[in-house]
Amino acid sequence: MVELKTDTSIDAMYEAGQVVARALTAARQAADVGVSLLELDEVAHGVLREAGAKSPFLGYRPSFAPTPFPAVLCASVNDAIVHGVPGRYRLRDGDLVSLDFGAELGGWVGDSALSFVVGTPREADLRLIETVERALAAGIEAAVVGNRIGDIAHAIGTVCRAAGYGIPDGFGGHGIGRRMHEDPSVPNEGRPGRGMRLRHGMALAIEPMVIAGGTDGFHAAPDGWTLKTDDGSRAAHAEHTVAITDSGPRILTAR
């Protein structure tokens, strides 16, 4: 069931989304050679505490997970696609990092992700990140009243496949609002003109993911959470929470 949000509720979701934006910005600024992923998690946690917000990630345990998620931030490095568990790993020059973060404020949730390189970047990594950001922008551009979920999926998939990249099968975006994961699902590849029609008041977390090697395969790391590319190539991830409105898509987690 899809809940249509009122304009007042969308404004409240924007406030939660801005907590997310501030946390990701702070964690991105703190990320440097020698900094541990646990330290980045603490930076993000500090923004939550300052805002009086809660984490929808901490303690979250979907059916596939062997244990509750132990942090407020997902930190995925190099061949990790998503759901990376922050640990004692210290960032190295040239690491490709994807950070995913959520916040709950006033009963509403925001969710966003970004990818970047620490230190000296590889040209291939910059192309990967640029592509996933273009795919996100294309998905958001398609998120207009009267379009369908398939139009978003098609826009994202077209950008990713044209660049020669893989798309992790079965993973994509989702509805969002009172809970982090709500209906509908938002695939990262699909046929235009198919699926649920978009209406004013819908809120979606749109999140393309790309695999540099061009294959779609992935597997779970021993922690049961981190998803890694089967071919060992690098991955990137980008995400925004977006409200569908009569005046166009509104990015609630804009940084």
Automatic annotation (TrEMBL):
Q: Which organism is it from?
A: Streptomyces viridochromogenes (strain DSM 40736 / JCM 4977 / BCRC 1201 / Tue 494)
InterPro entries named in the record:
Creatinase/aminopeptidase-like, Pept_M24, Pept_M24_MAP, Pept_M24A_MAP1
E.C. number, please?
Answer: 3.4.11.18
Described function: Removes the N-terminal methionine from nascent proteins. The N-terminal methionine is often cleaved when the second residue in the primary sequence is small and uncharged (Met-Ala-, Cys, Gly, Pro, Ser, Thr, or Val). Requires deformylation of the N(alpha)-formylated initiator methionine before it can be hydrolyzed.
Carries keyword RNA-binding? no
The UniProt record gives the binding positions of substrate as H83, H181
Name of the protein described by the UniProt record: Methionine aminopeptidase
Tell me the superkingdom of the source: Bacteria
Q: Which UniProt keywords apply?
A: Aminopeptidase, Hydrolase, Metal-binding, Protease
One GO MF annotation is: initiator methionyl aminopeptidase activity
Cofactor(s) this protein requires? Co(2+); Zn(2+); Mn(2+); Fe(2+)
Coiled-coil region(s): none
- Pfam families, per the entry: Peptidase_M24 (PF00557)
